[in-house]
Specification:
Layout (H helix, E strand, L loop, with lengths): L2 H12 L8 E6 L7 H14 L4 E6 L5 H6 L7 H6 L9 E2 L5 E4 L3 H4 L5 H12 L1 H4 L2 E6 L5 H9 L2 E6 L3 H16 L9 E9 L2 H19 L3 E8 L2 H8 L4 H4 L4 H14 L1 H5 L5 H21 L9
Parallel strand pairs: 1-5, 1-6, 2-4, 2-5, 6-7, 7-8
Antiparallel strand pairs: 3-4
The chain binds adenosine-5'-diphosphate and magnesium ion.
Magnesium ion binds next to helix 2.
Length: 308
Amino acid sequence: MDQAQQLRNIIKNSNKPQRPLARIITVTSGKGGVGKSNVSINLAVQFRKMGKRVIILDADFGLANIEIMFGTVPKHNLCDLIYQGKNIKDIITWGPEGVGFISGGSGISGMYNLSRDYLVYIIVNLAELDAIADIIIIDTGAGISSAVMEFLVASGEIILVTTPEPTSITDSYSLLKALNQSPRFSRENTKVKVVSNRVSSSDEGQQLFNKLNAVVARYLKLPLSYMGAIPQDQYLARSVMQQSPVSLQYPNAKSVKAFESIANQLMNPGSQEEVKQRGMAAFFSHIITGRKLSSRETAQGQSITSEN
Ligand SMILES: Nc1ncnc2c1ncn2[C@@H]1O[C@H](COP(=O)(O)OP(=O)(O)O)[C@@H](O)[C@H]1O
Ligand SMILES: [Mg+2]
C-alpha cells in the first residue's frame, strides 16, 4: 500500500465512530503578548490533571515559547520529521506533568512548498497523534497572517484570548472579521470561544466579552461563547520567569483557579458536543488541500483526500 492510499484509509477511518480522534483546540489572538502560550500550557496541565493525554503543537514560528516556558529543550522539531525522516514519536518532547509538546520550528510555514510525497508523509505521521493524545492544543502566532488563518479555518474549536487593552479588543475583532471572510471558514464547523485575560475582576472579563460579542454579533453575525476570565496575576508573570507553568509552580495562585474553571468549562458535555472531532489527519489535510493541493492535484484528478 503506498502512502497516498494509507492516507485515504486514515481519513476514511477517522469518520468511523470507533476510531478515537483527538480534540483539536487552536489558541489564538489578534494581538501578540496577550497570554496565548500561558493559556495553552496551563490548560494542558489542567487537562492532564483530569486524566487526559495532551500534546501541544507550538505553531508560533520563530518564537519558541512553549519550550522556554517548560524549561525543556526539545531534541527535534517538525522540520526533522519533514526533512530528516524522523517519526512523529521521535519529535514529541515530554514536559512536566506528562504534557507532550512538538516544536513547530519553521516546519509548518515551510510545509506549503513541499512536494506531495512529503505532505502525505507528514499527514500520515500526524494522524498517529490521534492514538497518542486525547487533546491537541495548537498555540498559534498572533494576527491575521495567512498561516494562522489556515490553522483557524481547519479548527473545530478556537480559543480567542483577549485583554482589556483597547488595541487587543479591536485586533480581536479584526481577526474574527478576517476569519469570517475566509472562503473556507464554516461557522457550523468551527466554534469560537473567548477567554478574557489580565482582568482586574470577573466583571471586567464579562464586560470585555459583552463588548466584543456585541460588535461581532452585529457586524459579523458570528456566535461567540464565553469561557471565563483570567485575572492579572503576578504569580503567573513570575512563573514565566522561572520557566515553569503557574499551575505547577504556584498551584494556589488566583490565575490557576481560573485555568481550572476554564478547563472544566471546556470539558462540560455541552461544550464538547458542539465540537466536531476531526482528528489530526483531517485537520492537516484541510490546511494543505486548501493551500496547495486543490489547484495542482485536483487538476490531475487525484485529490489525496476525501474531505469530510
Ligand atoms: N494573567 C496574567 N497575569 C500577569 N501577567 C500575564 C498574564 N498573562 C500574560 N502575562 C504576561 O504576558 C506575557 C506574555 O504572555 P504569553 O503567554 O507569552 O503571550 P503570547 O503567547 O500571547 O505572546 C507573559 O510572559 C506574562 O509576563
Ligand atoms: Mg506565545
